[in-house]
Write a structure and sequence with these properties.
The protein is α/β, with parallel strands linked by helices. The protein is built from seven helices and eleven strands. The protein is globular and about 50 Å long. The protein binds adenosine-5'-triphosphate (ATP). Adenosine-5'-triphosphate binds near residues 60 and 63.
Length: about 290
């Protein structure tokens, strides 16, 4: 596997060793008619406080990898370890925030939605769970909507509730599967900003799936590039230096273009950087053969 530094920086928490280890993991779906291989021998390490992004084209197995880390899909080959323990089932140490806006039970208020997993996991008394829920809702700017029902909220607000609910559980790893993909561009940008502000505050460990190169550079401190279906590791990058503020800069554009080339091996002089979304439909790309200059 090639490891590239867009800029060399030290890894926060690296001294403690990896928190999450994905080691040679192949994932398959078995139906009566056929076997679909979603990923092939994928390996990566996530350290505490990393914002680790899985980036690749549609169908390369990003969501399936996230589900495997969550414990919903067992590897057919390889192993996933969290804090040295083999992942074999879902657990409260790994919480997933999905793209869909309907992940909040509609019959519960915002506050009840955040309290529910805290109470269900028997971590806290009702009063403690209530206090924790209000604290987390305050962090995402929704304390004033604690007694509202989800159907009265915008898509962005629902995603904020889902994030508050996840962070309230203090998971070892927060798993996010294209959480902002269904939002309009302005809201998406604001949500990215808020997620980074939350991370500045709490330095949680994030595993984030996207097919947007720009979002990967903004949100991620490290990025794993996956090849088209079935997903194989193409490269791993450090991207700590980028933020929303650097998005229009020449350095940011150059990094986006380089990632595009690494994913699709497009010659530099023909690469189109006006649209840096990883295409949803694309024929199998040629293998990436070397480190970019
Ligand atoms: N439940 C399923 N049964 C059979 N095949 C599946 C199932 N879910 C996903 N797949 C297949 O596994 C492969 C990986 O899918 P996955 O959703 O993980 O990709 P992805 O990279 O997250 O794509 P996207 O960006 O479009 O969400 C695809 O070929 C897909 O068709």
């Amino acid at each position: 596997m090639a490891t590239h530094n867009l800029r060399v920086v030290s890894d926060r928490g690296a001294a403690r060793g990896p928190l999450l280890q994905v080691d040679g993991v192949s994932l398959e779906y078995r139906t009566e008619e056929r076997i679909v291989r979603a990923t092939h021998r994928v390996s990566f390490d996530v350290h505490a406080a990393d914002r680790f992004v899985l980036l690749g084209p549609s169908g390369c197995g990003k969501s399936t990898l996230l589900k495997a880390v969550a414990g919903f899909v067992p590897p057919c080959e390889g192993e996933i370890r969290l804090d040295g323990e083999r992942v074999q089932a879902p657990g409260p140490d790994r919480i997933v925030v999905f793209q869909e806006f309907d992940q909040l039970p509609p019959w519960k208020t915002v506050r009840q939605n955040v309290m529910f997993p805290l109470r269900k996991s028997r971590r806290m008394s009702r009063a403690e769970a209530d206090e924790c829920a209000m604290h987390c809702l305050d962090k995402v700017g929704l304390a004033g909507f604690a007694d509202a029902y989800p159907h009265t909220l915008s898509g962005g607000m629902k995603q904020r509730v889902a994030i508050a609910r996840a962070l309230a559980m203090r998971p070892k790893v927060l798993l996010m599967d294209e959480p902002f993909a269904a939002l309009d561009a302005l809201t998406r940008r604001r949500m990215q900003e808020e997620l980074l502000a939350l991370w500045d505050d709490a330095a949680f460990t994030l595993l984030f799936v996207t097919h947007s190169i720009e979002e990967a550079l903004v949100v991620g401190s490290r990025i794993l590039l996956l090849s088209p279906h079935p997903g194989r590791v193409r490269a791993e990058l450090n991207s700590h230096q980028f933020s929303l503020a650097s998005q229009g800069s020449a350095e940011f554009q150059a990094a986006a273009q380089r990632i595009h080339q690494m994913l699709f091996d497009v010659p530099a002089d023909t690469a189109d950087t006006t649209d840096t979304q990883v295409p949803r439909e694309r024929p199998a790309a040629r293998q990436y053969r070397g480190k970019p200059s």
